[in-house]
Design goal:
The chain is α/β, with parallel strands linked by helices and 470 residues long. The protein contains twelve helices and 14 strands. Bound molecules: calcium ion.
Length: 470
């Protein structure tokens, strides 16, 4: 038997196709595995056939920074995309440029949001997606108006609910692959708009169970998240759940086509999201916050015969790790550019004994733009670390947050003993050694992420910024 070095994924006999699917603003607690009330049977099926990573983290949980990290493998300070509506600079080494270099046919369908502005993205701003392109920068119209701009930047109208119209395009791409390009592997990204607000736009999704079912369930407080405290209406929560079920139906259409074409075994399918949504937890809205509802995202991967089926993994997987990990799974680790700062975790995903893993991830929104602040109050700049067990974060001293003053502060949560993060352990008796250790790690990880100038409060204060100690 040939010897392999530690942590190496066996080279595939033929390069696998990659279908990378991500929704917008879907927290990890918004699918059936982590909330049995939310019906997502097709994602459950994918999970049974693949591996679920429960510690997938959106390190900078807002659109443009996540998408820049996906495409660059770099921290926001390095790529320059620190907040929304900043343009990811071209450098020739973005994920899709590398996949093209190693022989993949690229395609992109859906929301882009790393161009800075304008919904018609110029071809030289597509970072190597030179083939199929049904893209737009940022729109959250789901049932009428423009669907996307095509390869020649012609506007195409929505004729059905966005998910399903996009699924038709994915199917068209897959059919074309099977008919005309079966010998060339593809790298197709499908970037869905839902379940991003407006949550009232659920009504055209027509999934089952539907809005009325979820709204009725939520009348009973036992069916609400334990940390739900208002701030986002139950109608919005029900609309959000409905959108998650609607995505699942569209995903099912695509998974069925992979089966029908006989290419499911040759195709890596990833399902994830760009970040979550507080959705009323602690009374907060939206994202850009260090709590699980904001940073912990679904991550399901199916790669038959390579990634174990039916596994639930506690691997820590960050946004900067996506690009090197995908290239590793393609058997193209040697093509990972030196500009990439993330880790290739493909061997760990494949269950290779002794494969390298992370024991901590940097998290942070080091800069809040004025536009972002307006749409996501209260929001405050922070940096932190997320380990498998703990979340520790520092809000920037002097950051002005509506209703919370300008003191800055720290949070420390034990996500095993307190999964809903109800208790802030900062400065609690018995937390001293843990807190000191995590603080040292935060200082080190801020250095790694290029945030060493982030202003940390002199020492942890006794009250968290949002959650008062009990
Ligand atoms: Ca987003």
């Amino acid at each position: 038997m040939p010897q392999r070095s530690r942590g190496e994924v066996p080279a595939p006999l033929r390069p696998p196709n990659v279908l990378f699917v991500f929704s917008d603003q879907q927290k990890n607690r918004a699918w059936q595995m982590n909330n049995p009330l939310i019906s997502t049977p097709r994602l459950m099926q994918l999970a049974a056939q693949g591996t679920v990573v429960q510690n997938a983290v959106s390190q900078t949980p807002i659109c443009s920074p996540y998408r820049a990290m996906l495409m660059s493998g770099q921290y926001p300070r390095t790529s320059g995309v620190l907040y929304n509506d900043l343009r990811l600079p071209a450098n020739g080494d973005r994920l899709s440029e590398v996949t093209a270099r190693v022989g993949y046919r690229n395609g992109y369908i859906g929301k882009w949001h790393i161009n800075g502005s304008g919904n018609a993205i110029a071809p030289d701003r597509r970072h190597g997606f030179t083939g199929t392109w049904k893209g737009y920068e940022a729109m959250h119209n789901y049932s009428s108006g423009t669907a996307w701009y095509d390869e020649a930047n012609r506007a195409v109208s929505l004729t059905r609910y966005r998910n399903y119209q996009e699924a038709d395009e994915v199917v068209r791409f897959l059919n074309d692959h099977a008919a005309n390009h079966a010998d060339d592997p593809f790298f197709l990204v499908w970037s869905l708009g839902p379940p991003h607000n407006p949550y009232s736009d659920y009504h055209k999704t027509q999934p089952s169970p539907n809005f009325s079912h979820y709204r009725s369930l939520l009348n009973d407080p036992v069916n609400r998240p334990p940390n739900y405290a208002g701030g986002e209406s139950l109608d919005s929560v029900a609309g959000y759940y409905t959108m998650c079920s609607g995505i699942d139906m569209a995903l099912g259409q695509v998974l069925d086509r992979l089966d029908a074409l006989g290419i499911a075994d040759d195709t890596i399918v990833v399902y994830t999201s760009d970040h979550g949504d507080m959705l009323g937890s602690y009374g907060l809205k939206l994202k850009q916050k260090p709590w699980e509802e904001s940073i912990n995202i679904p991550f399901v991967i199916r790669y038959p015969g390579v990634v174990p089926a039916g596994q639930v993994s506690d691997l820590l997987l960050g946004s900067v790790d996506l690009m090197p990990t995908l290239l590793g799974l393609m058997g193209r680790a040697s093509a990972i550019p030196s500009s990439v700062q993330g880790m290739d975790l493909s061997a760990a995903l494949c269950g290779v004994p002794g494969a390298p893993e992370r024991d901590a991830l940097w998290i942070g929104v080091p800069v809040i733009s004025s536009a972002s602040t307006a749409s996501a109050r209260p929001a405050a700049a922070y940096t932190g670390v997320r380990t498998k067990r703990h979340t520790y974060a520092s809000f920037k001293a002097g950051t002005v947050v509506a209703g919370y003053g300008s003191k800055g502060g720290y949070i420390l949560h034990d996500n095993v003993n307190d999964p809903w993060q109800m208790e802030n352990l900062v400065d609690k008796t018995g937390s001293e050694a843990l807190q000191a250790n995590l603080h040292d790690r935060l200082v080190a990880m801020n250095l790694e992420a290029g945030e060493s100038s982030f202003t940390l409060p002199a020492r942890p204060v006794s009250r968290g910024l949002y959650i008062k100690s009990r």
